[in-house]
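seq:
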Amino acid sequence: TPSVMAALPSSLVKHVTLTTARVFHRFSAFNPDRRIHPVTGAFLPGTYGCPESEVPFVPTGFTAVGRFALPNSLPASHHYEIEAVIGTSVDFGTVAPAFGQAGGGVEAYFQHGAKDARAPPKKPSKLPDE
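struct:
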C-alpha cells in the first residue's frame, strides 16, 4: 500500500477579521525590513508579527529571536509597530520551535498584509541586542 503523506498541523489556529483597528508589532534584525512597506509602514502580504500582549516579553533583540523562532540568528532589535485597519485578516497561533530556537510566543500572520491606519507610520524603535 502506498504511504499517505499527512501535513503537519499549523500552529496558526485562530482566524480573525478585525472589527476595530488593532496594534501589532514586528521584531527584525533589519532596518529597513523587507516585509514592511518603506513609505506606508504596512505589513506586506505573508508577514509575521505579534499582538501587543507579546511586547513585555521581548526586552531585547536576542529574546525576539528565541521567542519567535526567527530564521536569522542576528538580534531582532528593530521594533516595528502598526495599527492594522478594520477588516484586516489575521491568523494567530503559538510559535513552534524552529531554526534551533525554542519558540513559545504568540504570532500573528498576515496572509494578505495589513495596512497601517497611522499616517505617517510610526518609526521603528531600537531594542538592546542582549
